[in-house]
Specification:
Elements: E1 20-23, E2 29-33, E3 44-48, E4 56-57, E5 69-75, E6 81-86, E7 91-95, E8 103-104, H1 106-113, E9 123-128, E10 134-138, E11 143-146
Antiparallel strand pairs: 1-2, 2-3, 3-4, 5-6, 6-7, 7-8, 9-10, 10-11
Length: 151
Amino acid sequence: MDVSANITPSTFNSTSTPWTYTFTSPTVGIGVYGSEVDTVGSAYVLYTSDGGDHWTVGTLPASAGNMVSLIGTFSAPNGTLFIVGGGPSLVLYESMDDGKTWTDLSTKLNAWASTLDNPPIRLETGFALDAQHIWVGGDSGFIAYTATGGE
């Protein structure tokens, strides 16, 4: 069933619809939009608990108010959700409540990446074996791993 018609500009505060989605079950999912070439603060996340019939705007970290691109989404088997992207720095956000609220896990990742000769500015993909063991990949073949959930 096509549920994209249920996402309209009246559903959220942007003129662009999400460009990446992840579902953790047949009913729970997120849709994400964020482009560093768009207006500051235009990034958003929508979440659904009914398979996409209804969408609600989630609460992103304050850092999403900057010029950020939110490029990819993925989840851990326990339902923890992640968003990756970039802009002036790497973006890694985590939600443990089905997309309603998000925590910024980018600080340590950016500190480490800044020590590299060719630091990436964007993450594009990720994989979580569980909420602690997370891999992310991005620009210039960059790949990073944490066994501590990004902390």
